[in-house]
Design a protein that fits this description.
Chain lengths: 218, 256
């Protein structure tokens, strides 16, 4: 059962990456091209993770996830969501969102013992990401883009990010506690997290498929 | 410590569920609101377009009829006048009585034709209507802008304010240009229009509460150039003033 969910997630990530590369030439905006690169990076990271797990190099895998994959994920998503929104000072907003995350990341790295049961950097990163996504959705809803939301990539991308990052916020915030003290609940919530993760990548895939040139572009 | 985290997770989960539900409801409400707004804007634009098409058609018809009237007067009228002169000359020649009577009849027919032709020509060229009520024309233009529901327009005019047809048209074009610029570029919410007669002059004041512009930088704008040209053509003096953040105003004075 566990493996089925893992392979399902890998499949969804693969499909999202493949479709994004397929629509590479059709995408006029450079943001969507960088998004394709991001999806491919995520898929390759997952494959790397599986290989290291098979080779019983769990420590390397965990270090890669904690210090490379997740930070890069947040940095890219901040930049991407800010590009999709209607901010005038995009660089300033990006730095304002990135700075607290970096501080929390550094604090967590050097004071790991103090924050054994709470993923502080993930909580902070997630919080700022959700604020940016909600602002992006607000801009989307108050513009004329909402009339053609079925053909707008912004809609699907924001919904996908909300589903996963908001839906799994409690889980990843106290993941260590759940797995240490309440393994059954932790496992059940893990299944939910995987399903939400798959839904996110499905939304990303749809964002490329449903994008029409005539609609308002991101 | 453990209990705190469990409570934190429960509170977060509850908040997340509420956020999702609220988000869905908000999205639906916003979508419906935007759709209704879009449809009303579309209807207003279609109505405006239809009215402009009608106006353009009427103007074209009027111009065509005026051309025909002029052609009749200049072309056919001249020839008939010439024929009338020749027929009168012939009357003084030594013609037989029978021919004399016939020539008189021909001369009368030609003169009657000339009179009827002149009447027809005058009707087509619309020469009787030299003046037009400019206040009514202003009201029509302002109603068009109000129908867009983008900007509020306050108008103070003078009822039955008749001026020359041609000058009225030029002033209307200046008004249309100003209102179009205010809506398109100034992003204004209010426009103030005042039309009055002062010391045998037509005084027109237009202003908006938009974002204004740098006059020095915009001296090459086609719209502004057209307005100035029209004012000069009818012998009116025109001043435009604008400051960034303080709106734009236009003052026009036309001696009557």
């Amino acid at each position: 059962m566990y493996n089925y969910f893992v392979y399902l997630l890998l499949f969804c990530e693969g499909v999202a990456s493949f479709v994004s590369l397929l629509y590479w030439k059709k995408n006029k905006g450079y943001e969507m091209k960088y998004f394709s690169i991001y999806l491919t990076f995520i898929f390759l990271s997952e494959v790397f993770g599986h290989i290291t797990q098979k080779l019983l190099l769990n420590n390397i895998n965990q270090m890669y996830i904690d210090y490379i994959a997740i930070p890069l994920e947040f940095v890219f998503l901040y930049w991407f969501i800010i590009q999709l929104s209607q901010y005038t000072r995009k660089t300033k907003i990006f730095l304002m969102a990135l700075f607290p995350y970096l501080i929390s990341f550094i604090i967590e790295t050097f004071f790991k013992a103090t924050f054994e049961f709470l993923n502080i950097s993930y909580i902070v990163g997630n919080l700022f990401l959700l604020i940016l996504v909600l602002k992006c959705i607000n801009d989307f809803m108050t513009s004329n883009n909402i009339l053609q939301f079925m053909y707008s990539p912004i809609f699907y991308i924001c919904i996908g990010i909300l589903l996963f990052y908001l839906g799994t916020f409690p889980y990843y915030a106290i993941k260590n506690v759940l797995w240490a003290e309440f393994k059954t609940i932790g496992l059940k919530y893990w299944y939910i997290a995987i399903v939400l993760n798959c839904l996110m990548y499905c939304m990303f895939t749809i964002s490329f498929l449903c994008y029409k040139q005539k609609s308002i572009s991101p | 410590m453990l209990q705190t985290e469990i409570y934190l997770a429960l509170i977060l989960s509850t908040c997340i569920v509420f956020i999702f539900i609220a988000g869905i409801v908000l999205f639906i409400l916003q979508y419906r609101k935007r759709k209704i707004q879009y449809q009303s804007e579309k209807k207003a634009m279609e109505l405006l377009h239809l009215n402009e098409m009608k106006e353009a058609t009427l103007q074209m018809q009027q111009l065509t009829m005026q051309d025909i009237g002029r052609e009749i007067h200049d072309g056919v009228g001249q020839r008939l006048t010439l024929a009338s002169i020749y027929s009168k000359q012939l009357l003084h020649k030594n013609l037989s009585e029978e021919n004399q009577l016939k020539m008189e009849e021909i001369s009368n027919i030609i003169n009657e034709s000339l009179v009827q032709l002149r009447l027809l020509s005058r009707e087509l060229a619309n020469e009787q209507e030299h003046s037009i009520d400019i206040d009514e024309l202003f009201v029509v233009e302002i109603e068009k802008v109000k129908a867009l529901a983008v900007c509020d327009v306050e108008f103070t005019g003078e009822k039955e304010f008749f001026i020359d047809n041609k000058k009225a048209m030029f002033i209307i074009r200046i008004l249309q240009e100003f209102m179009q610029n205010s809506l398109k570029y100034a992003e204004c919410t209010q426009m103030f229009i005042s039309l009055k007669k002062e010391n045998d002059c037509l005084v027109l004041n237009l202003s908006d509460n938009g974002k204004g512009f740098d006059l020095q930088a915009s001296t090459k704008g086609i719209g502004l150039h057209n307005m100035k040209r029209r004012a000069e053509m009818i012998g009116a003096s025109m001043e435009i003033s604008s400051s960034i953040g303080l709106g734009t105003s236009l003052h026009l004075q036309l001696p009557l």
